[in-house]
Structures are given as structure tokens and as C-alpha cells.
Design goal:
The chain has 272 residues and is an alpha/beta fold. The chain has 8 helices and 11 strands. Helices cover 30% and strands 18% of the residues. The longest helix has 19 residues. Bound molecules: 6-chloroguanine.
Length: 272
Amino acid sequence: MRIDVVTIFPEYLAPLDVSLVGKACAKGLIDVHLHQLRDWTYDVHKTVDDTPYGGGPGMVMKPEPWGLALDAVLERGASAAAPVPRMIVPTPSGRPFTQDLAVELADEPWLLFAPARYEGIDRRVLDEAATRMRVDEVSIGDYVLAGGEVAVLVMVEAVARLLPGVLGNAESHRDDSFAPGAMANLLEGPVYTKPAQWRGREVPPITVSGNHGAIARWRRDEALRRTAAHRPDLIARIDPAAVDKKDRATLAELGWIERDGRFQPTDAPVAD
Ligand code: 6GU
């Protein structure tokens, strides 16, 4: 996979050389190209922003440097296998970044990230880019960052670990919270390792019982408990058909019962 990032802070993306993503680059599984947006400015101050039309606070990124940068990146990166990239514009007003979107992006041969600073990029840049390639504005959560660079790090890491050959163990993403399957939409429960006794605390005896059926059952139970505590919205999305008797009992104990084809808090008002 080829990844291009156009930014006024390429040094902010230095962590891409470290750890899992760094190793994936070293192995040739991803090919990252960082570009300094200011390389496409032609005034002495290398200006990339200006005041917003219509007034208001903050600054808006000018269209000309972005236009030239995108032209250059599209020309340099084009190949027979990937003639155009898919463009991702990080912004708190974008569609949510989810594991499903990470899986979708992991299938793309070429991603182009355009993180903005200030109040964002002149809209015409995105509108024009969308005539040449798929453009998605994406948010990594309901909070506001000072710029999109950290969001690029988040998305690249989430995508990179899904690429074949990046994780040592292909099974490693099977039980991920948000991975498809039996534990879909459940958060992962607690994990333990040696020593079995530490500062007077023992690991749960079931984890060292060797009874793999019982361990799987316990893990699922813990996943339900953690999900009910931290993400009740995910409990409400569980398909009742994917739930067995023991799950039902655990959910009831946690205050969730099936009603109108979905799990609802026991104290939820009854619809008429
Ligand atoms: Cl993608 N960018 C910025 N600047 N802030 C954010 C975000 C992205 N996602 C959540 N907050």
C-alpha cells in the first residue's frame, strides 16, 4: 500500500517510522511519502492560510498550495495498479472513523491524507479533488484536535495492522473489539499473564484451569460486563439471535432484557 501525506508538519508524522507501522515500512508492506505543503507556495513567507470570507475567527487554508500539491502527488504516485489514490481529509465534521472503515481502507492500494491546521481547507479544494478521486472527510471522535496530523497517525496505524504480513500472528485481530464474528460489537475483557500471584493478587482461577470451553465462556461473560459498563450503546446493537441462554442470563443480571427485538435496559419505558 502506498500512503501519501501532505501537511505543514511532516515532522509530526515521525512516529510512522516506529513500532508496527515502522516495521511494515521496513518490510516494504507500506510505502509512506510525506510532503511539505509549503513546498507549493511561491511567496517569501510561504503562506498557506488567509482570513475567512464572510468573517469570523481563525484562518482558512488557501486553495492554491493544496491544488498544486495534490496535482504533484497524483502525478508522482500514479501506477498501473493504482492510477489514483483514495483521499482522506481528517476533520471533526467528517464521517466517523470505525473499524469497518479501517477494513475498507486496508483494501485500497493507495491512500492520500490531507490533514489541515486552522479552521480547515478552502472547500473548493475538496470539491475539485472529488472530480478526480474518491474523497472522504473523516473524524476520529467527538473532540477537537489542533490539526489532523494525529488523526492521520491513528488511521494509518489502524489500517496498517490489518495488512497481510504486518501482525506476527494472523489470529491477533480475530478477537479485536469491533472485529466481526461472535464477539462482534463487544469490548474485550481483562487479560492476565504470569506470575499467577502478584502483590497478593491471584489471576482468576478459570484462566489457569485448562478448560478452554469454560475459558471462552468466561471471556464472553467478561466482554458483556465490560461492554454494559463502558458502552451501553453497543449492548443495544446486539442481535438477539446471536445470544445464547447464558448471555441472556448475564445481560439480565446487568439490567438488560430483550424487548421489541433488541436489548433494552430493564427500566426502559415500555413502548405502546
Ligand atoms: Cl480527524 N481532525 C481534527 N482536527 N480534530 C478532530 C478529528 C480530526 N477527529 C476528531 N477531532
